[in-house]
Write a structure and sequence with these properties.
about 500 residues; alpha/beta; FAD/NAD(P)-binding domain; Flavocytochrome C3, Chain A, domain 1; 13 helices; 19 strands; globular
Length: about 500
């Protein structure tokens, strides 16, 4: 039997590394496929971290904005919790060496983003927040004696005792060999599902592994149909698509069609700063009508582009688009998975021995439409709470546990899946396309077996087909109206089937 570690953290993104640092001095192990900070989607975050840090702001205002953006299904307790914890976690990051932008008088420079009522997004060099945060945390982790880092391995299944308790993971090395990593407590911080879609701002490797592994083990999953499409991916034929941060519109950039006509006021009274789902659908409609969609930053940013938004500037120039003198072509792209593995307020899932943090988790913070820059916030808030719970906890040592290695989905099948998810489970959905995609997934599963990508995609599609309404990022052209607020909960049945039910807001596994 392989040795047992104390706390095993699956994933080297922001949630995983922040959790590991906050566990000090308790020993923990972090596993990641790539060197820390290099492949995590956290490092690609451009906007920053939202928190009520200015004298003109207050956590109650931040919580209200979170509730409003989330289309009626944000848990108000969680919204208040992340808003109140936000300033403390930003100070933690400052202490860890994150160089957030400052004003000339030394205060944090805060930016306005869509659906925020105040400027409250802390950034680094305009659009380098994710990269800078991950560099600072990776450096701290490397210098921390209580953290063991194992790179070059990927979790593919959860080790499970006969009684259902999770006892670590079955992992795959780069060589293809499988190893068991046993642990008293396993925390999955393995990112989102953007790689399941043909157009995404995520690493292609983000294929819903965490939610697939947890579902197969019997964990409760919630709201998988809610995926957020960032409205302004840079449309230059890249995979993944570079991102034109929302902060550009916060600085005054406008969305225009190919004739230069600003069109967002035709769709929403907040215009360019409308919630992301509204902007994404507006851009989708303009593109479908043949008018195209472009982000005009010439007047708002102009010559300051190289210094204020270096990542966007470099991406544009690489495609021979100079945003100082020409509008940027944009298109919606799958950006963030708001659903995931259900947790309580302390990161516990419905399975003993298993916790979840970050994009892998469904805490109730994002509802149907995540508020801009709340993702990094949620990651650090819940990582800190999970660490606080586990730091001095007495953990049970696992017994005999097993896991079955799932099959891998071949490149051709994955390409077809990504095309179908983009065209039929994208910004606008309807029953025919969803049912056809679900049938294709079922057929592929019959031929290949329960590959993780197929399991995760099936959860998204099944949830979208079952939700016969439009809400937030989930828009059904055949059911455009919004019903009474309700959440989707999915679990694996006794015979391996997918069991779906909808419930009112109070249901879940919340534990204060």
């Amino acid at each position: 039997m392989s040795p047992t570690r104390d706390i095993l953290i699956v994933g080297g993104g922001l949630a995983g590394l922040f959790l590991a640092l906050k566990l000090a001095p308790r020993k923990c192990t972090v596993i990641a496929l790539a060197p820390l900070g290099q492949a995590a989607a956290s490092a690609w975050a451009q906007g920053g971290l939202a928190a009520a840090l200015s004298p003109e702001d207050d956590p109650s205002l931040h919580a209200a904005d979170t509730l409003a953006a989330g289309a009626g299904i944000v848990d108000p307790v969680v919204a208040r919790l992340i808003a109140e914890d936000g300033p403390h976690r930003v100070r933690d990051l400052l202490d860890m060496g994150v160089p957030f932008d400052r004003t000339p008088d030394g205060e944090l420079a805060l930016s306005l983003e869509a659906a925020h009522s105040r400027a409250r997004v802390a950034r680094v060099s305009g659009d380098l927040a994710g990269k800078a945060i991950m560099e600072a945390l990776s450096y701290k982790v490397a210098a921390s004696s209580h953290i063991e880092v194992i790179e070059g391995v990927k979790a593919i299944a959860l080790l499970q005792e006969a009684n259902g308790r999770i006892a670590g993971v079955l992992a795959e090395e780069r060589s293809g060999d499988h190893i068991q990593l046993r642990a008293a407590e396993t925390v999955i911080c393995a990112g989102g599902s953007g790689g399941l879609f043909a157009i995404t701002t995520n690493p292609k490797s983000s294929q819903g592994d965490a939610v697939a592994m947890a579902f197969r083990a019997g964990a409760l999953i919630s709201d998988p149909e809610f995926v957020q499409f960032h409205p302004t991916a840079i449309d230059i034929g890249r995979d993944p698509a570079p991102l034109a941060t929302e902060a550009l519109r916060g600085e005054g950039a406008h969305l225009v069609d190919r004739t230069g006509r600003a069109f967002m006021q035709d769709y929403h009274p907040l215009g360019d700063l409308a919630p992301r789902d509204e902007v994404a659908r507006a851009i989708h409609a303009e593109r479908e009508a043949g008018r195209g969609a472009f982000l005009d930053c010439r007047k708002a940013i102009g010559a300051h582009f190289p210094d204020h938004f270096p990542t966007v500037f470099e991406a544009c120039l690489s495609a021979k688009v100079d945003p100082r003198i020409a509008p940027i072509p944009v298109a919606p792209a799958m950006h963030y998975h708001m659903g995931g593995v259900v947790t309580d307020l302390w990161g516990r899932t419905s399975l003993e021995g298993l916790s979840a943090c970050g994009e892998s988790a469904s805490t109730g913070a994002h509802g149907g439409n995540r508020l801009a820059s709340n993702s990094l916030l949620e990651a650090v808030v819940f990582a800190e709470r999970t660490a606080r719970r586990l730091k001095d906890a007495t953990l049970s040592q696992p017994g005999e546990a097993t896991a079955e290695a799932p099959p891998e989905l071949g490149d051709l099948s994955l390409t077809e899946l990504r095309k179908r998810m983009h065209s039929q489970v994208g910004v606008v959905r309807e029953a025919g396309g969803l049912a056809a995609t679900l049938d294709w997934i079922e057929a592929a599963t019959h031929n290949v077996g329960p590959a993780r990508a197929l399991v995760a995609a099936k959860l998204i599609v099944a949830g979208a087909l079952a939700r016969e309404e439009s809400r937030g990022g989930h828009y059904r052209s055949d059911f455009p109206k919004t019903l009474a607020p309700h959440r989707t909960f999915i679990r694996r049945g006794d015979k391996g089937e997918t069991v779906i039910h909808h419930s009112a807001m109070a249901e879940g596994i919340r534990d204060v």
